[in-house]
Amino acid sequence: MQQTPLTHWLRLLWNRSPPLHFEATGHTPCLAAGALHLPAAPAWRDHCAAAAHAVAHLVYSPRQFDATGLVPIARTLLALLEDARVEALAMRELPGLARLWRPQHQATPASGEGFEPLLQRLARALADPGYDDPHPWVRKGRRLFYLDAALGLPALRTPAELRSAAMALGHDIGQLRLPFNAQGYRPMPAYRDDHRWMWPADQLTEVAPPP
């Protein structure tokens, strides 16, 4: 697949298009050194989902977050909440993106109640107002995140607010005593990037070295 059609498509959305690099199949999407690294194999629609998500970070996210004092669970939750926040803002500006991102979310109660399945269920609950998850923790996350879920209005607007919500949700996971392998974790759905861009270089302890 050529870079040019995807580059042009991104420019139509926000007039932003980072340099694109296509990596081996199975590579997690990654924003690093101003460039977007994507797995080579996925279909055009998957590339669009990943690229639009990454550029939404360039448009709506602060340049970096501070992970000081955050345990891995809270750090992971902060990244998930920021993913959801930029997508909510992007879908308000460009509603058609909902058709690109929401079908990628497939988690259900049948996915399980470990920490990673709950992360996927929370990600879906924040991305899709039509999805109603019965788990109290997922519902709490949705309540913390939205002023109005139906209208896609996030309540969490600043890094401090996101951090506070992540720590509250992380505390609940700690109370549930759910294990988490931070080194092996990769964000889901698979179109979402590895959050390398979020952290200063001296705080990159949870992700692999840049490709």
Folded structure, characterized:
The protein has 211 residues and is mostly helical. It folds into 2 domains: 3-60, no CATH class; 72-203, no CATH class. The chain is built from 7 helices and 5 strands. It has helices at 3-14, 44-60, 72-93, 97-101, 115-127, 136-145, 159-176, and strands at 20-23, 30-32, 35-39, 146-148, 153-154. Strands 1-3-2 form a 3-stranded mixed sheet, with helices on one face. It has a two-stranded antiparallel sheet with strand order 4-5. A hairpin with a 2-residue loop joins strand 2 (30-32) and strand 3 (35-39). The radius of gyration is 16 Å and the shape is globular. The two termini are 20 Å apart.
Number of helices: 7
Which whole number gives the mean pLDDT? 89
Q: Structural class given helices, strands, pairing?
A: mainly alpha
- Name the poorly predicted regions: 207-211
Give the number of domains: 2
Q: Give the helices and strands as they follow along the chain.
A: HEEEHHHHHEEH
Overall form: globular
**Which bin fits the share of residues in helices?**
40-55%
Please summarize the sheet with the most strands: 3 strands, mixed
How far do the termini sit from each other?
20 Å
Rg, alpha carbons: 16 Å
Could you tell me the number of beta strands? 5
How would you write the strand order of the largest sheet? 1-3-2
**Strand content of the residues, in percent?**
5-15%
What can be said about this structure in brief?
This protein is mostly helical. The protein has helices at 3-14, 44-60, 72-93, 97-101, 115-127, 136-145, 159-176; strands at residues 20-23, 30-32, 35-39, 146-148, 153-154. It is 46% helix and 8% strand.
